[in-house]
Amino acid sequence: MTTNPINNKILAQRDLAVLWHPCTQMKDHENLPMIPIKSGRGVWLEDFDGKRYLDAVSSWWVNLFGHANPVINAALKEQLDTLEHVIFAGFTHETGIQLAEKLVDITPAGLNRCFYADNGSAAVEVALKMSFHYWRNGGQTQKTQFITLENSYHGETLGALAVGNVALYKETYAPLLMDVITVPGPDCYYREAGETWAEYSTRRFALMEQTLQQHADTVCAVIIEPLVQCAGSMRMYDAVYLSLLRDACDKYGVHLIADEIAVGFGRTGTLFACEQAHISPDFLCLSKGLTGGYLPLSAVLTTDTVYQAFYADYTQLTAFLHSHSYTGNALACRAALATIGIFQQEDIINKNQRLIAKLAEAAARFHGHPNVAEVRQTGMILAIDLVKNKTTREPFAWQERRGLKVYQFALTKGVLLRPLGNVIYFMPPYIITEAELELLAEVASQGIEYAVKD
């Protein structure tokens, strides 16, 4: 008896017969073959035809220490033989407790309570509900609104989508979304010639100050992505904005929600982006890199002040109302503990400084390119804006999909890049070597040349 060989083509056909993929126009795959991955090790993925791809985007920003990491693998294997999951209402487990203790220890000061959810969008939903419910429990029922920044992204469930501002994600579902107050942002792409990031971000904060002054009585919280608006084309701003915002939220009696789902765990050069402004938010949302790219898990860290607003006799009906079946999943918590252990045992934040410098050096070649408007970097995130005209920053027509051409070219060279429109970005795992960073930059450079030629 013989069995049919499994290869890319066969698996791609089976996939397209039954699956619907995220953020994908499925018709594209009539001409752009789906790539089935057989295995991963380190920064490399291998398909069923034996071709390898450098994972330059950390598999959607989640994989910090490589695929099939032996430390995380071993931790999960041990956990599997002990406890895979248990209801987290009325029950608990040591792994979940240990992770909460660790998160309280490593996050900014004052964040002493941990609430688990299962993904980034859910974490944002928890923070929004918790902020609203806090004010409600305190009798301030008029506080029902949220302030968000233009070009922001906080997830794709309805509450998270409502407080985001990326048109591509939001416009279709607008009739289903709550109204929010959107403030022009501190995106330093728009700074004047000669103006520093700090000067521009400070100047732009005046618009937030005015909004808080006008609406504080009805606003629960301001929600932001500290330092980098990742899904919003990897736009960046200075930490001074966070400092000013923390002071203003205190002044006007409004919560500050820091969505560090994408930028936490070392992406900006510090363990958490808020550290660069020396602030603590009222709510800190974490996910993605929390488990090293292994399992879905998120956490919302908050203060004892918030916690105490819900703590009362049952008959007061002040308990927080949020749950899901896999809350505090033991396997996911164990993966997170192993991930944090790697940070601490291997001094990753300091080690990454060398990679950050190498990333900047490798990307120097893009600065003078006639179709590159800006090369910007915050820590282990680097972005390159492709435009039709460098001087005027006139964009390519979106219908031309120049970024997609870079993606397709890079795949032929064994590199996985997934641009955001016409923004090419690098967000690699922290175990990438300097030689692999150089390869990544060289393939991106060749891909850009291929994509901009008419």
Structure description:
The strands form 4 sheets. This protein has a 7-stranded mixed β-sheet, with helices on both faces. A 4-stranded mixed β-sheet has the order 1-2-3-15. The chain has helices spanning 8-18, 58-61, 70-80, 94-106, 120-137, 158-162, 167-170, 197-215, 240-252, 304-308, 330-345, 348-362, 402-412, 434-452, and strands at residues 37-41, 44-47, 52-55, 113-117, 145-149, 181-183, 219-224, 228-229, 235-236, 255-259, 283-286, 298-302, 372-378, 381-386, 415-416, 423-426. The protein contains 14 helices and 16 strands. Helix 8 runs parallel beside helix 9 and helix 13 packs across helix 14. Helix content is 36%, strand content 15%. By secondary structure, it is α/β, with parallel strands linked by helices.
Note the main attributes of this structure:
15% strand; 14 helices; 7-stranded mixed β-sheet; globular; 16 strands; 454 residues; alpha/beta; 4-stranded mixed β-sheet
**Share of β-strand residues:** 15-25%
Structural class: alpha/beta
| Whole-angstrom Rg | 22 Å
User: What's the total number of strands?
Assistant: 16
Element string (H = helix, E = strand)? HEEEHHHEHEHHEHEEEHEEEHHHEEHEEH
* Major beta sheet, strand line-up: 4-12-11-10-7-5-6
Overall mean pLDDT stands at 97
Percentage of residues in helical conformation: 25-40%
Q: Helix tally?
A: 14
Distance between the termini: 53 Å
What characterizes the major β-sheet? 7 strands, mixed
Given as residue ranges, the uncertain stretches (5+ residues, pLDDT < 50) are: none
Shape descriptor = globular
